[in-house]
Structures are given as C-alpha cells and as structure tokens.
Amino acid sequence: MTMRIAPAILSLLALSTPALAAQVDDRAAVALAKPQELIVDTGLHAATVAAMLTPVDAFYGFWTNGSQTPLDQAIGPNVTDRTPPPGRRPGPSGPAAAGKAFLAAVPDLTVMVVQRIVAGDRVVSHLRFTGHFTDRFSGVEGKGQAIEFIATDILRVAGGRITDNRHLEDNLTFLRQAGLLPKAGD
User: Fold this and answer.
1) Which of 153, 106, 110, 103 minimizes the C-alpha distance to 128?
2) Residue 165 near residue 129 (C-beta atoms within 8 A)
3) Which of 90, 126, 132, 166 has the fewest CB atoms inside 10 Å of its own CB, making it the most exposed?
4) Cα separation, 57 vs 59, whole angstroms
C-alpha cells in the first residue's frame, strides 16, 4: 500500500524559478530537489522515510549546483554505481567528475524530480533535466542549444547514505540536442 504526500504543495516547490548552478547555494539546491509527487510505502515509519530522503535530496542538490558538500552528504565512501557509463570511475569520484563535466557544459542545468517512490531500502526518482549547452562536452562546443531529457535512478539507502545507484538516462536525446549525434531523420 502506498500514500501520496501533498502533490499540490510539492508541485509549488518544483515551480520555483530555477537558477544557474553556480548561483544556487547548497540549501537552495537541496530544496529544489524535492519531488513534484512523492509515493511512500505506508509500511515505512516516517522517521525512516525522512532518513532515506535526506541523502537523496542532497544527491540531486549536488546535480543542481555541483557543490561537493551535498555530494559528500549523499553518498557513502563505498558507493557502487551498478550501471556506470563507459569511462566513469567507480566510487564517489565517478559522480563528482560526471557532475563537474556536465555542469560545465550545461551551467544552467535544472533537475526536476517529477516523481519519487520510496519502498523498502530503495528510492526511485524519475527526473527531467533542462538547460542550455553553452560550453564543451566530448570535444564539442555548445552553441546555447536547449536540452531536455529524462532519467530514472534506483538508489539504495543504508546508514544515512546512498550505497548503490542504478540509473538510466536518455543520453540519445541529449546527444542529439547537443549536436553530438544527428537528429532522428537526418
């Protein structure tokens, strides 16, 4: 059994005006990471849910502003990326390097958590990323192209930290929008 928590209130948080990554402090970045819709297993105690969501919000706060502080609050020293893209380093240095590179290429990146599901020791987040490709990524210089793509993360949380991450990003859409691959039909 699940319950839905105040989707109207959560939607208002998500409608906050996004700021550039470099202009958002850690507290604001974490606040922006709140989901539009939250679905929680009613068998979980409220304190357990709060403890699970604290590192998850910090993780998406990191993707909003690139600050090492929320990332350190989010992931454990032995975090395991179960679906790493080619070349991503294991452990905490992987997301740190990926975030730095991506936020440099898309400095106005906004991460919207559309829906979050909490069940057992897992938190599933469906995400929408938007921004403008204005710097370099994979050797290509951005020209201000708008980007918008989705991703889904399945995070395991234990001991107040994310210990495992399984994720799927719509990289094909991003690469086409950024001009790194031809658009469909080209």
Assistant:
1) 110
2) no
3) 90
4) 5
